[in-house]
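Give me the fold.
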Amino acid sequence: MKGTANYSIEVTPVQSPLTLTPGDVAGGSITDLGAEPVGVAITPLEIKASGGTGPYAFTIGGTLPDGLEAVSDNVDTLQISGAPGTVGAFDFSITATDSLGAAAKTRFTQKVG
């Protein structure tokens, strides 16, 4: 018997895991950004999200040193720049969340003084 059969196939793309560069938190590790003098502009720090499904939203936990600001390009990068204005040690984290709710987090410490 001859004939024609129609089939539908649904393809679901496999998403790679969402990651941040520099490094994701593994076992609670913290990236030490070293010491910066008060009032001197830092070399901008770029945190880049990849994998998952963009665009990405970035959030900051903890406290950036006074004088530093975080600006997102609303695509995949958050940049921290400026000149720190207060002496101290500052711990903060960056979390990127993709459009499907997957999240990746990385932590930093910045010394000023």
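The mean pLDDT is 85.
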